[in-house]
TrEMBL record:
Entry-linked Gene3D superfamilies: YVTN repeat-like/Quinoprotein amine dehydrogenase
Biased composition (Polar residues): 1-16
Region Disordered, annotated ranges: 1-21
Sorted UniProt keywords: Repeat, WD repeat
PANTHER family: DIPHTHINE METHYLTRANSFERASE
Lineage top rank: taxon: Eukaryota
UniProt key word Cell inner membrane: no
Name assigned to this protein: Uncharacterized protein
One record GO biological process: protein histidyl modification to diphthamide
A GO molecular-function descriptor: diphthine methylesterase activity
GO cellular component: cytoplasm
InterPro entries assigned to the protein according to its UniProt record, in alphabetical order: Diphthine_MTase, WD40/YVTN_repeat-like_dom_sf, WD40_repeat_dom_sf
Length: 374
């Protein structure tokens, strides 16, 4: 498979020793290992693929090649893996290459990769850290777990959401110093399984979780965005109130959430602003602006949207900006960004630009994007 960018570069999918890149499975999710050109893909046949981006070609015309590093049958092939999430450490070693994944029967697991991703082992004694159920007086059915994420800034818990309309969180037991993690997987045993806001269940299934890489100044609590089938995005705190700090209706089920900038502001700032890319199923792609005022109140606004797809938008992403060098100005929320969004049944992929300077505050939004390629 080869994709050509608007600027003339290409990205080619290859497999070592093979020319045919067709596969007999679908991919539900794909996540890059933080700070590395390596990603994990969740498949419909119970496999997790580990792939790497490599540069090929001449220096003046470099292209990218996707190389499959390994494939691991972590779950029986009749079970779909719905989502994956990497343990968020900048310097990942064999001891900390941890991946959380969710499956269609509601279970959430942790695995650790070794030997340059050639082997793996289950953590928590091969048991799921928790499971999503639809518990009623007459049934106890497993429900799909659609998303998972590690807490930030300290990744000491795993959160997941599913069709049971509950966001679950399990606390992990490991050393205080994350750089000295030992090989003993018992250090990663589950301490508790907490169903957050269970008394106030979400109106519909939880489909997206986006933790912030900093805590609230007043209570040092992990904060995160939660997206649901009912089109809502809410800002929540682990130890906060049983209602969201802020909430907005996006007009379509919220399937993916991603920061436009990698780190949305330093934690010492009381007032901050950052942007989030949201995949909203039948409502297309939207860009949200999340603000915290000096007084500590949160606000969520829609500042841009793309509706050029004819079918469900299940995924969107943004091209990362290079880190500023010494003496260069820091990255802000004002840089033009290149994004890509998808459409399900019509098999459409669109590449477009978002310019924050074209957004009119307090009035009509001007042209929000410039299509580049489909």
């Amino acid at each position: 498979m080869q994709v050509t960018s608007p600027e003339g570069g290409t990205c080619q999918m290859t497999s070592s020793g093979e020319e045919d890149t067709s596969r007999d499975y679908g991919v539900y999710d794909l996540k890059f290992l933080p700070y590395h050109p390596i990603f994990a893909a969740a498949t419909t046949l119970g496999k997790i693929l580990i792939c790497q981006l490599e540069e090929i070609g001449e220096p003046e015309q470099k292209d990218l090649q996707i190389k499959e590093v390994s494939s691991h049958q972590v779950i029986p092939e009749n079970i779909t893996i719905c989502s994956v999430a990497w343990f968020p450490l900048q310097h990942a070693s064999d001891g900390t290459r941890i991946l959380a994944f969710t499956v269609e029967d509601g279970r959430v697991f942790l695995v650790r990769f070794r030997d340059d991703f050639k082997s793996f082992d289950f953590l928590n004694g091969q048991l799921p850290v928790h499971q999503h159920f639809d518990k009623t007086p007459v049934s106890n059915n497993a429900e799909r777990a659609w998303c998972c994420a590690f807490s930030r800034p300290r990744p000491d818990s795993v959160m997941s959401g599913g069709d049971d309309s509950v966001l679950r969180r399990s606390t992990l037991n490991f050393p205080q110093d994350l750089t000295t993690l030992q090989e003993d997987s018992s250090l990663w045993s589950v301490v508790t399984d907490l169903a957050l806001y269970r008394e106030k269940r979400f109106p519909q299934g939880v489909t997206a979780i986006l933790p912030f890489p900093f805590c609230t100044p007043e209570c040092s609590s992990t904060i995160f965005l939660v997206g649901c089938y009912d089109s809502s995005v809410g800002l929540w705190s682990v130890y906060g109130k049983d209602v969201p700090e802020a909430e907005v209706n996006l007009g379509g089920g919220v399937y993916r959430l991603k920061f436009l900038q990698y780190e949305p502001g330093p934690p010492e700032q009381v007032a901050c602003t950052f942007q989030v890319l949201a995949s909203c199923m039948d409502a297309g792609t939207k860009i949200l602006e999340v603000k915290r005022s000096i007084s500590g109140h949160w606000f969520i606004d829609v500042v841009a949207e793309v509706k050029d797809h004819q079918d469900l938008c299940y995924a969107a992403d943004v091209q990362p900006l290079p880190a500023p060098g010494d003496g260069e100005a820091p990255i802000t929320c004002l840089e033009e960004r290149i994004c890509v969004s998808s459409s399900f049944k019509d098999c459409k992929l669109s590449v477009w630009k978002f310019n924050p300077l074209h957004v009119v505050r307090g009035g009509i939004i001007l042209p929000l994007h410039s299509p580049m390629a489909e």
